[in-house]
Amino acid sequence: MAQKTKMIVDKDFKIAEVDKRIYGSFIEHLGRAIYTGIYQPGHPQADEDGFRKDVIELVKELDVPVIRYPGGNFVSNFFWEDSVGPKEQRKKRLDLAWRTLETNEVGLGEFAKWCEKVNSQVMMAVNLGTRGTADALNLLEYCNLDTDSYYADLRRKHGRKKPYDIKLWCMGNEMDGPWQAGHKTATEYGRLAAETAKCMKTMDDSLEFVVCGSSNVDMPTFPQWEASTLEEAYDYVDYISLHQYYGNQEDDTADFLAKTQDLERFLHSVIATCDFMKAKKRSKKNINLSFDEWNVWYHTHAEDDEHMLRSPWQKAPHLLEDIYNFEDAVLNGLILITFLKHADRVKIACLAQLVNVIAPIMTEENGPAWRQTIFYPFLHASKYGRGYALQPVISTGCHDTSCHENVSDIEAVAVFNEEKEEVTVFAVNRNTEEDISFEADIRGFEGYQVKEYLVLESDDRKAVNSAVSEKIKPSQKTAYTMQDGIFETVMKKCSWNVIRFGK
Predict the structure, then answer these.
(1) How confident is the model at residue 3 (pLDDT cuts 50, 70, 90)?
(2) Fewer CB within 10 Å: C terminus or N terminus of the chain?
(3) For 5-10+390-502, CATH number?
(4) Residue 135 Cα to chain centre, angstroms
(5) Is pLDDT above 90 for 2?
(6) Which tens digits make up the pLDDT trace of 14-52?
(7) Taking the domains of the chain in order of start, what are their residue ranges?
(8) Which residues contact 347 (CB under 8 A, 6 or more apart)?
(9) What is the largest CA-CA distance in the chain?
């Protein structure tokens, strides 16, 4: 057995209060996310509005506070006016991002209504690719104002008297990417984002804004893009976005699970860039982080590219439908631990995406909705990761992988929910060769005992779930000891662990 890992958990070691919006997600008009995903009139589980009740229940189970919409790359050719009003009058549009046909059967009003059904808030993106400030202002008036003016009156005419009151707005999407409709330089984009946010804030001063950072850490303009964008927009925005996806194309599990080392460097680089601009601006305001696209994504790349090339302009084709395995779930757990360790700056995060498209929830068009393997780490973090993130004081062994050095065997963080008198330790043994003895010292939480110990474990790292079989799901673990405030167990190699203590 590898070196023993020891962790000290103390309520005085606070990082920051966890913003519940780090358990956000994302739905784009892409593939089957909307049509046959959240919306399928005629399905046995459809409600009076055509939304699938089985999907609603699974989303409510995850307790997702905010959902980014309508894109993604889709937003850069999105004409919001086509998505409101009587359905029979809505225009069908060609979506340039994914080369599909958008019928606009589900639009802004329908999506907002669905968010209410799943107890979530809309995180709205505006089109700063092929459109601009004037269209963003019209959209904001339609959504949020209760004035006697054209677009507010139009919303009322469409049957929605009460404003949608959307508070969180994305200033476009991935505007550094050459693939993006309306791609811009950092300075061009920064000026446009600044002017748009400034004007929108004049209309509604309660808004928060997310400005586009780099599309991923490997972009040749990273991190100068962030610096140049914030040079223009710092005073008008609140968050900068980060996007990153991870894959295991090489089928190297040990190195795959080490990739949160890269995530750590990404976070540190963006935080340092934000703080440099804070110093340069002589500002008192921090720009915090919105990691509003993250997940594992690699299983379907080749077939998706082929489909978009050979069969364009279809409605709701099967795109980006990665079927996740056990090791993907473990990596997602590591990503969530990393976000919690940076709770002082990571305030928003969106698992991309939510239903069918690189998603924790899948649907069968003529059958049930079901949970992918990655559903469970997200569920556990969302349910038990509310409160104060605590600085992990941890000593653990290390190992090297094919592309990473000094990779910690155990990654862990704790969250203290003072109101519920609970503390939860989230831990991953990412050593793929050895089980590891783990000790947590929680003597700072006098009178606390183990409430529950949940694990995801599997000898088959490629095991997947399906509509008929849930091979990967949590189980209760009872093989532990707890004495005088010291918790001890053996964590299985390549495993996700959730240890809940309560008074």
Answers:
(1) confident
(2) N
(3) 2.60.40.1180
(4) 27
(5) no
(6) 999 999 999 999 999 999 999 999 999 999 999 999 999
(7) 5-10+390-502, 26-384
(8) 19, 21, 22, 239, 288, 289, 290
(9) 71
pLDDT (mean) for 318-326:
97
List, for residues 336-379, the tens digit of each pLDDT value: 999 999 999 999 999 999 999 999 999 999 999 999 999 999 99
Q: How far apart are CA 196 and CA 202, in angstroms?
A: 10
β-strand pairing of 66-69 with 24-26:
parallel
Q: Is the peptide bond before 314 cis (omega within 30 degrees of 0)?
A: no
| Alpha carbon distance 438, 479 (integer Å) | 12
* Residue listed under structure tokens 């979506």: 95
Calculate the CA 10 to chain-centre distance. Answer: 28
Question: Comparing C-alpha atoms, which of 255, 267, 210 is closest to residue 401?
Answer: 255
Report the DSSP beta bridge partners of residue 242: none
Peptide bond into 178 cis (omega under 30): no
Neighbours of 428 (CB within 10 A): 27
CB 19 within 8 A of CB 32: no
| HSE-up (13 A, CA, CB side) for residue 155 | 26
120-159 pLDDT, tens digit each: 999 999 999 999 999 999 999 999 999 999 999 999 999 9
- The DSSP letter of residue 89 is G
Q: Which class does domain 26-384 fall in?
A: alpha beta
Contact 39, 444 (CB under 8 A): no
* In 97-178, alpha helices (H): 108-117, 133-144, 150-157
Active site residues: 174, 293
Q: How many CA atoms lie within 13 A of 474 on its CB side?
A: 18
Q: In the block, which residue shows the tokens 């703080």?
A: 275
DSSP state of 285: P
In this structure, what DSSP letter does residue 166 have? -
Q: What is the rounded distance in angstroms from the CA atom of residue 307 to the CA atom of residue 358?
A: 16
What value does the mean pLDDT take over residues 454-473?
98
